[in-house]
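# step 3/5: fold
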Amino acid sequence: MKRLSWKKQIKRRWKQWRRTVWACTIFGSACLLAGLGILFSRHMQTMLSQPLATTVMADVDTEEPSHTSPAEVHSSQVQVLQSIRASGISRKTHLLTTYVCGTETLSLGTLSSQQLESLLKQHPDWKGRLNSRGEVWLERKVEDLSELCKQHAYMGISMDGQLTLFEGPPKKEKVIRTFFQLDVGSMETALPEGVYEQLQQGIRVQDMNEYNSVISTFGDFAVERTQRVLKQQY
């Protein structure tokens, strides 16, 4: 009888131990899956927070850009480099490209202080600055039209008679920038037939040659230029 009782106790303990092992295994697996889920979620958030290049055509600020001397640019760059070098931390980095028509913003990801220092030294014409969040913004200027401008830019005349760069045909009235007031009366009498009508409908510009050619052609009919010519004649 004692032997039978002993065997029953062994079997009971074995079942209890097996249930305990299974419970621990299930709990551990659940914790592991939860941890992997959190890591995956954070990874996806990081990926989504780093956008691809964003291109913008509009540039409605027609004021003359501020002229910064080479000495001031160099001093600013030195200060940025010193801040980056002193912190020694990696920072989110963005590249802002300003074209004659349009801008483009590109995320360069998170760069170490050594990578940033090397990048700025390789491109001394780029301006660097730190924003309030400690992110690095690199800025460069390119004497060309952005790809978006090449696809959608039109030169035309605005409702108030100014030579204007539009996104799409002038009838859509999506103004990118204005240049100067046109002497419409002089244009209608001096230009070959159909040219003024073409300007009203919009002239496609797909590269810098076309862009400069249109500005040069109609620059002869800028109000200020016309007034100077009339004064010289009389």
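# step 4/5: annotate
Helices lie at 2-48, 70-87, 113-122, 147-152, 184-190, 195-201, 208-219, 223-233.
# step 5/5: archive (pending)
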